[in-house]
């Protein structure tokens, strides 16, 4: 028996919403008993895309995080459900029974991820089913995964060591969106946005970009070195939040620059003007 899971690679997601639209196309006006009743045509986001702006002008980045139901091994929603209205299939998919859950509006707030939505017309709570009805027909992946044009979504059997999802899990590069909830989520992420430190190196005497300048970062047990690009820009991604780092910039013939930086938020150091080293005076005879 498979144990299904999903890996979401944030660095590949461009926020196109194809996954969300495929979900709506599958579930609006379509009942798939015993797993789901039709989704209303507005107000539900079984695959929600969270857009987060990072940094400040002129260094702004946008991160898109796709958030479906996490199909947790230990789901709080299931504990809160009455009369077995939420259950886990042998393959790990968490299902809200559309009949047994009728009237249980409290289930909407039982999920800390807030991925359960209330269907006002039908008076039932609803959420992503990993397209259980399609998997039962032999599909290898849900509609959202099939629709994703960038390969940001990977679906498969976590217990099959050869599957891509199992290999990602074993790589140690995946993480849960909210580990503090402690629900053993089976949807995990790669490249969740953390903090960045960026800047632009400028040669103070010529006003030219400091292309090729060596930029080193130290702190929190990390040491990284990059070279400023042809615009003099550099960036360190994936840093810890609210921690201290030291940034050093070196360019031959110029005085070194050093800054202590705290990552309370994403940091753009702006233009870093390097001053030329004095060549020293000639000795008089
Ligand atoms: S993410 Fe929420 S709705 Fe989905 S299984 Fe976990 S607790 Fe339940
Ligand atoms: S379809 Fe893929 S790239 Fe588009 S928003 Fe969804 S996860 Fe991101």
The dominant shape is elongated
Helix content: 10-25%
- Percent of residues in β-strands: 25-35%
Give every kind of bound small molecule, once each. iron/sulfur cluster
The first-to-last residue Cα distance is 91 Å
Structural class of the secondary elements?
mainly beta
Number of helices: 5
The average pLDDT score comes to: 96
Write down the oligomeric state: single chain
How is the main sheet built?
A: 4 strands, mixed
According to DSSP, the number of beta strands is: 17
Which features does this protein show?
12% helix; elongated; 285 residues; four-stranded mixed β-sheet; binds iron/sulfur cluster; mainly beta; four-stranded antiparallel β-sheet
Which helices and strands appear, and what pairs or packs with what?
Layout: E1 4-9, H1 18-27, E2 48-56, E3 59-67, H2 76-80, E4 86-88, E5 94-96, E6 117-119, E7 124-126, H3 132-136, H4 143-147, E8 153-157, H5 164-171, E9 187-190, E10 195-203, E11 208-209, E12 214-219, E13 222-227, E14 233-239, E15 244-250, E16 257-262, E17 267-274
Parallel strand pairs: 1-9, 10-17
Antiparallel strand pairs: 1-8, 2-3, 4-5, 6-7, 10-11, 10-14, 12-13, 12-15, 15-16
Bound molecules: iron/sulfur cluster (2 copies).
3D architecture notes:
- The protein is mostly beta strands.
- The protein contains five helices and 17 strands.
- The strands form six sheets. Strands 10, 11, 14 and 17 form a four-stranded mixed sheet that branches. A four-stranded antiparallel sheet has the order 13-12-15-16, with no helix packed on it. The protein has a three-stranded mixed sheet with strand order 8-1-9.
- It is elongated and about 85 Å long.
- Residues 69-72, 75-77, 94, 111, 113, 115-116, 127, 183 line the site of one iron/sulfur cluster.
């Amino acid at each position: 028996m498979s144990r299904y899971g999903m890996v979401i690679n944030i660095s590949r997601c461009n926020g196109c919403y194809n996954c969300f639209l495929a979900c709506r196309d599958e579930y609006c006006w379509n009942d798939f008993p015993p797993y789901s009743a039709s989704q209303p045509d507005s107000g539900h986001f079984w695959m929600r895309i969270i857009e987060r702006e990072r940094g400040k002008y002129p260094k702004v980045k946008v991160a898109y995080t796709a958030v479906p139901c996490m199909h947790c091994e230990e789901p709080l929603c299931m504990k809160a459900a009455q009369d077995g209205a939420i259950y886990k299939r042998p393959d790990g998919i968490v299902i809200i029974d559309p009949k047994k859950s009728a009237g249980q509006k409290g289930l909407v707030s039982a999920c800390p991820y807030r991925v359960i939505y209330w269907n006002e017309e039908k008076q039932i709570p609803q959420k992503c089913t990993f397209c259980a009805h399609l998997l039962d027909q032999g599909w290898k992946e849900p509609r959202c995964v099939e629709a994703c044009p960038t390969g940001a979504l990977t679906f498969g059997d976590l217990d099959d060591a050869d599957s891509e999802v199992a290999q990602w899990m074993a790589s140690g590069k995946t993480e849960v969106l909210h580990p503090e909830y402690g629900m053993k989520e089976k949807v995990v992420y790669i490249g969740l946005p953390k903090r960045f430190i960026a800047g632009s190196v400028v040669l103070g005497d010529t006003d030219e970009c400091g292309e090729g300048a060596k930029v080193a970062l130290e702190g929190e047990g990390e040491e990284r070195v990059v070279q400023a690009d042809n615009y003099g820009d550099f960036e360190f991604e994936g840093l810890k939040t609210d921690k201290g780092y030291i940034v050093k910039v070196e360019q031959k013939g110029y005085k070194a620059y050093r800054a202590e930086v705290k990552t309370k938020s994403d940091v753009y150091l702006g233009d870093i003007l390097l001053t030329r080293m004095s060549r020293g005076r000639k000795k008089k005879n």
